């Protein structure tokens, strides 16, 4: 069986994170994870130099992933890129797996931050992105089952009430796949959650296929 982290953040791309990409990979490697998906924050104020062009910002955003991947290659950990997108129109957060420049060229930058989830979703599907709503009942967040591909049912962040049973009921009602992640920002968050699979996830396509086929075992449900 293989452990995969699907939701984690690294500094400095995610200003709220307390560890570097190198530290994150080292910590997860020690905990026996075979795959990490870096989902750093991307929002209107995610911290990249405002003097950069949007193409340059897009490149800078993935620097944390690139550093993590280099460390992962040395330690035998597969590291994959993704994004947690936050817009001004909603308190919700959305995990984008397979995010690419074509998507941003379609929606426009910085226009993407002023779009609604329903406006963004068709562009995501047209460019091969899988959209997972992160922690749909945390704080002021609310589920949007009609414009996502799956719901993060288990989020093991120890600082939030993520209302696992309620979001699981929404997923079942709408027939949406369920996933989970640690939402790691601090050392105490590492390796609490994620997914377990029989085969190692080596690509984002592997993760998406396992998600849709129901092949994911959600780690950490007992913690929430």
Key descriptive features of the protein:
21% strand, TIM Barrel, ten-stranded mixed sheet, 7 helices, globular, 224 residues, alpha/beta
Can you describe what's shown?
The chain has a single domain, classed as Alpha-Beta Barrel (TIM Barrel). The model has no long low-confidence stretch (mean pLDDT 90). It is α/β, with parallel strands linked by helices. Helix 1 runs parallel beside helix 3. It is globular and about 40 Å long. Strands 1, 2, 3, 4, 5, 6, 7, 8, 9 and 10 form a ten-stranded mixed sheet that branches. It is built from seven helices and ten strands. 31% of the residues lie in helices and 21% in strands.
In brief:
With 224 residues, this protein is of the alpha/beta class. It has helices spanning 21-30, 54-61, 63-75, 101-107, 117-126, 164-174, 204-213, and strands at 2-5, 33-38, 41-42, 78-86, 93-97, 130-134, 150-155, 178-181, 194-197, 217-219. Strands 1, 2, 3, 4, 5, 6, 7, 8, 9 and 10 form a 10-stranded mixed sheet that branches.
Question: Can you tell me the CATH superfamily?
Answer: Metal-dependent hydrolases
Structural class: alpha/beta
* CATH level 1 class label: Alpha Beta
SS element count, helices: 7
The CATH topology is given as TIM Barrel
Could you say what the CATH architecture is? Alpha-Beta Barrel
Taking all residues together, what is the mean pLDDT?
A: 90
Q: Which stretches are poorly predicted, pLDDT < 50 over at least 5 residues?
A: none
Give a short account of the largest sheet.
10 strands, mixed
**Could you say how many structural domains there are in total?**
1
Q: Indicate the percent of residues in helices.
A: 25-40%
Overall shape: globular
| H and E order | EHEEHHEEHHEEHEEHE
Distance between the termini: 22 Å
Query: Any idea what the radius of gyration is?
Result: 16 Å
Bin the strand percentage: 15-25%
Find the count of extended strands (DSSP E, 2+ residues). Answer: 10
């Amino acid at each position: 069986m293989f452990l995969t982290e699907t939701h984690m953040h690294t500094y400095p791309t995610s200003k709220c994170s307390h560890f570097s990409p190198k530290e994150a990979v080292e910590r997860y490697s020690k905990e026996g994870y075979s795959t990490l998906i870096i989902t750093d924050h991307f929002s209107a104020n995610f911290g990249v130099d405002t003097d950069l062009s949007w193409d340059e910002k897009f490149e800078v955003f993935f620097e944390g992933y690139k550093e993590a991947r280099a460390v992962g290659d040395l330690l035998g950990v597969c590291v994959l890129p993704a994004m947690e997108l936050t817009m001004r129109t909603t308190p919700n957060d959305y995990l984008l797996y397979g995010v690419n420049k074509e998507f941003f060229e379609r929606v426009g930058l910085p226009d993407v931050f002023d779009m609604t989830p329903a406006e963004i979703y068709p562009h995501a599907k047209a460019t091969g992105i899988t959209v997972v709503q992160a922690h749909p009942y945390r704080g002021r967040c609310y589920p949007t089952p009609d414009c996502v591909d799956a719901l993060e049912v288990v989020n093991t962040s120890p600082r939030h009430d993520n209302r696992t049973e309620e979001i699981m009921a929404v997923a079942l009602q709408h027939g949406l796949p369920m996933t989970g992640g640690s939402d790691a920002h601090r050392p105490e968050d590492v390796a609490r959650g994620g997914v377990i699979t029989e085969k190692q996830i080596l690509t984002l396509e592997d993760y998406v296929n396992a998600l849709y086929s129901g092949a994911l075992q959600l780690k950490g449900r007992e913690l929430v």
